[in-house]
Amino acid sequence: MIERILENYKPLIAIPVAIVIIALLLIAFNGLNQGIDLKGGSIVDLNLETPISASELESVIKEGLDINEVKVSSINSEEASIEIGTDTDVVTLTNILQGKATISSFKSIGPVLGQEALNQVYWALAFAFLFMSITVFIIFRTFVPSMAVILAGLSNIIIAVGGMSLFGIPLSIASVGALLMLIGFSVDTDILLTTRLIKQKKGTVTERSIDAIKTGLTMSITAIAAMASLYIVTIVFIPQADVLSNIAAVLIIGLTADIFITWLMNLGILRWYLEVRR
Question: Tell me, what's the pLDDT at 128?
């Protein structure tokens, strides 16, 4: 069955292309939330003096500061962590929470610093793609296979960001780190595929493709299982570790997308290239 699918590969290229288009539409129309560390705001850790729910705590702070951008990221009977979408005066917040909670930690990030961090994020992604592209061209020294690897990496990032938009995962320093890891993993699987098909001569193209699929899927499924375990553990047992759960979620989306991108689109492009060259 796999051989029959691989022999009729051209229609399969449309599947990851359609997913990429959907991801682009999500990014364009649904937008992408930014974390406090990029857009600016305040992160506050509280010691609770009286029992209070997350919604009640949010209401108290919203009414006291006259703003709507307040989110309780974690809360239990003794402690709570909140995110405020604007630069906040710690004295004013202390007075608002008097009798309900005391501030144990306060971190404020101004909009200028947040914008500077966002610019650095764009530069980091741009340089990662630049050096990845240079490395790929050095390895293969042919245009079509090299561009297929680069296109696969770009498509993988687009789908991951589209998933962040769909599931409300904020763009933050942590999620950018996950995106950078995805670039590396995507290139790994694509280089594996390209090396097996272009540089190896043993067996037919279909046989080499199946061999690459077995190895690549083992890598991807193992990585997805590890990230799924991390996500479940953080959600169930450490809900306050939202940074880890966000990283795991982004990697799960990107690694799943990489399966479609590599083994449908990139494989199809390379087989097409080998047929034309033959």
Answer: 83
